[in-house]
Amino acid sequence: MSKKRSIFEDVSNDTPKQDTPKGGLIDQGRSGARLGVSIWLLILFALVAVMIVVGGLTRLTDSGLSITEWDLVKGAIPPTNDYAWAMAFDKYKNSPEYTLQNTGMMLEEFKNIFWWEWGHRQLGRFVGLVWAVGFIFFAVTKRIPKGWAPRLLFIGFLGGLQGAIGWWMVSSGLTGRMVDVASYRLAIHLGLAFVILCSIAWLIWLLRRKEAELLQARRQADTMLSRLGKVLLVLAIAQVLLGALVAGIDAGRGYIDWPMMNGEFLPSESFDYTPFWTNFFENPALVQFNHRMLGYIVFLVSIWVWFKSRASALRSVKQAFDWVLVAVFGQIVLGIGTVLYAAPWHIAIVHQIGAIFVIILMLRACFVSTYPKAQSL
Predict the structure, then answer these.
(1) On the CB side of 354, how many CA atoms lie within 13 Å of its CA?
(2) DSSP assignments along 135-182, one per residue
(3) What pTM was estimated for this model as a whole?
(4) pLDDT by residue (tens digit) across 73-85?
(5) Domains in the chain: boundaries
């Protein structure tokens, strides 16, 4: 028989304790150190962006062939005395670039181009170190979110592949009569850099949202705009590759009028090279023409996608495509200015930085369309 209680008796201490409500099962055991990992990736993102800019400056200053060897460890130590500098300079003197283009270069001039290439390679080593230290730390401390280890390892793989492609690119300019790296290898090198940058950005955005929130947001995705955004992104990346071809053969300095090219729409010498296919990679006239035409296409498609985005009920989606259109227009203006001033390095590098903004803003528009936030309605 249960004990009788007074109607005025305090029974608060006898009330069974209830467990504090917890989040959904989908986030249990998965969260890891999402914020910490995202901060680490954000640092990598910034370093890769700087790497792209330094790589562009290395190309614009014709410094990429100043170091004729690749040594992952010993190459990290620059010349520290007159003898070491003389040895490095002697190796450069055996390269086609020196014998065919820079004969008579003084040691002080060599040092200027050496430091650009050395800095570019050293930054690449530092990026790899930051990735390795971060990944090992989060793995050993078991802070990697569940299922994320392969994604983070893939970033490291891409970084290692980029280093190998970088040397493959440089080696193309060290034989025969080459005084620059092969333009198509430069395009592959730059293209992979943008793939790495975009991959890191996408992972950061995913990590900044909870798994349950992402699943819920995915159900509200604007599928049409997400697809259109990806089409636009592919076109913009193709434009970046064409830009690398232009830079690789200095095609931006040969036709410095606009909207025509030396008074013609399509220069008459656009198909003079043999075999025929080499015109698309090595003929400055056709390479710059293709870069211009695709730029116009990207701009027109951007306007069309922007108009499509006006029908979205999501304010954040509209704003994302607003910024895309602004960035593309700005990049067009920068491109025209680069041509009109014969691609001086200080304008050309701003144009390359503009490409970074365009690509990331397009990717952001794709992400926002795919994973819209509920409060954006």
Answers:
(1) 22
(2) HHHHHHTT-SPTT-HHHHHHHHHHHHHHHHHHHHHHHTTSSTT-SS--
(3) 0.87
(4) 778 888 889 899 9
(5) 31-208, 221-377
